[in-house]
Amino acid sequence: MSINLNPRRGTARVRVAALAFAVLTLLVPAASVAQASGLANCRDLTGPSADIRGCYETVWVNDTQVHMTFWARNTPFPGAVPADKMEALYVLAPQTDTPQGIWPLHDHVVGALPGQTGFSVILHGYFVMCSAAGLTSGDCVPTMTPIPGFGTVPFAKSVDGDALTSSAAIESAAQAGFVDLFDTGGVVIGAVTGR
User: Fold this and answer.
1) Averaged pLDDT for residues 117-146
2) 96 exposed, middle or buried (CB, 10 Å; 0-12, 13-18, 19+)?
3) Which site among 53, 109, 140, 172 is 20 to 30 Å from 47 CA-CA?
4) Burial zone of 135 (CB within 10 Å; 0-12 exposed, 13-18 middle, 19+ buried)
């Protein structure tokens, strides 16, 4: 399997990935804490105001699930931010029996909570997929995931038997060559709102 990881090539594919990333980050199951604060689950928003309302999603931060509020659904960040000021928002296979996102099933991982080093509300999206080496060696277990307009990809479920519920675990697996991080080109604004 060959996946184009060079953003300079396959511009159409990067655009499709960015659109898929925007859709994936917004389709999550209903939860409780954010609803109690009056925020709607992003997947539950419909109608003309859906793309201009704030909403929440569930994400992993250092092995703990928290809620993240996004400023507007399906609206990418419009500003220019230096890449070194953005943190990663990883999209990968569900890490538990209850996925954070639906259609297709997926989870999200960010690196830090407010007050921690590396925290940022401006997040750059990456798909976390098993690499050819990770698949061949069996070190990376995939969930084959169809993404509309993009194809079926080997979203990473685990590496060496460990869940990928922290940025450190994902980045370590990438350095070892077991996963590939596909730059979706998508940038969103999101802030942690509750555990």
Assistant:
1) 92
2) exposed
3) 109
4) middle
* End-to-end CA separation in angstroms for the chain: 38
* Predicted TM-score of the model (pTM): 0.76
Any residues with CB less than 8 A from the CB of 139 and at least 6 apart, and which?
133, 159, 160, 176, 178
Q: What is the 3-state secondary structure (H, E, C) of the chain?
A: CCCCCCCCCCHHHHHHHHHHHHHHCCCCCCCCHHHHCCCEEHHHCCCCCHHHCCEEEEEEECCEEEEEEECCCCCCCCCCCCHHHCEEEEEECCCCCCCCECCCCEEEEECCCCCCCCCCCEEEEEEEEECHHHHHHCCEEEEEEEECCCEEEEEEEEECCEECCCHHHHHHHHHCCCEEEEEEEEEEEEEEEEC
HSE toward the beta carbon, residue 1, CA cutoff 13 A: 16
Q: Are 49 and 152 in contact (CB under 8 A)?
A: no
> What is the average pLDDT across 160-180?
97
Residues 92, 147: Cα–Cα separation, whole Å = 12
Most confident by average pLDDT, 22-26, 37-41, 55-59: 55-59
User: Across the strands, what pairs with 101?
Assistant: 106
**Whole-number Å distance between alpha carbons of 124 and 40:** 23
